Amino acid sequence: MLLISDTHIGTHRVGGTTPASREALRDFNISLIESMLSGSNEGHLVIAGDLFDDFEVDTRDFIAAYQILSGWLAGACRSLTLIAGNHDHNARGSKMSSFQALAEILVSAFGNRVHVLPIGRHGWVDPTLGVYAVAHCPNQDLFDQALSEVPAGVKWLVLHANYDNNFAVESDHSLNVSAEQAKAFNDAGTALVFAHEHQARSCRGGGVQ
């Protein structure tokens, strides 16, 4: 399994940039994702949230993402799991995100080789490896409820959230897992793997990554 997250395709930064540097950043991001995939021999790609940088992205970024992921799936015996992140959620809920649209197209093209965990959902990513995931939820209460429903026997729990971040506790846009919640999972033999946090760190003796 190749697990990546926060690819943020369609990244658009304005502050401290020029049109040329913005374009260079976009191209670099696309090239980096392509390089990661081409250098992997794994058969199952898991993207743990924030595939796109915004709820809706420019058409050319949508097409770039489709080309990357359909190219991956063109390989024999390959599968894809897409997990929704906070950038894939809109509180109004009346529009389809670029993430949702791309997921629909990929499922239509590749069938059960593509597995999608939309906003508010949780489920097995690979039961043979003990990998389970919880997608971004509309608010912290729903996220806590989803955590309480994680079944026994999970070895690796993939989350799109912060770990032990008091600034995120009251924010629905950025969810939080407390140290106490993490300890309970670790004590039960479950390690937590966080997307959303862009800086790598390891806590609780490797029980939180």
Question: Can you give a write-up of this model?
Answer:
- The chain has 209 residues and is an alpha/beta fold.
- The protein is 32% helix and 20% strand.
- It has 5 helices and 9 strands.
- The protein has helices at 19-38, 59-73, 98-110, 140-148, 179-187, and strands spanning 2-4, 44-48, 79-83, 114-117, 122-126, 131-134, 156-163, 176-177, 191-196.
- Strands 5, 6, 7, 8 and 9 form a 5-stranded mixed β-sheet that branches. A 4-stranded parallel β-sheet has the order 1-2-3-4, with helices on one face.
- β3 (79-83), α3 (98-110) and β4 (114-117) form a beta-alpha-beta unit.
Structural class: alpha/beta
Mean pLDDT: 91
Largest beta-sheet details: 5 strands, mixed
Specify Rg, calculated over alpha carbons: 17 Å
In helices, the fraction of residues equals 25-40%
List its salient traits.
alpha/beta; 9 strands; 20% strand; 209 residues; five-stranded mixed β-sheet; 5 helices
Secondary-structure map:
Layout (H helix, E strand, L loop, with lengths): L1 E3 L14 H20 L5 E5 L10 H15 L5 E5 L14 H13 L3 E4 L4 E5 L4 E4 L5 H9 L7 E8 L12 E2 L1 H9 L3 E6 L13
Parallel strand pairs: 1-2, 2-3, 3-4, 6-7, 7-8, 7-9
Antiparallel strand pairs: 5-6
Helix pairs in contact: 1-2, 2-3
In short:
By secondary structure, this protein is an alpha/beta fold. The protein has helices spanning 19-38, 59-73, 98-110, 140-148, 179-187, and strands spanning 2-4, 44-48, 79-83, 114-117, 122-126, 131-134, 156-163, 176-177, 191-196.
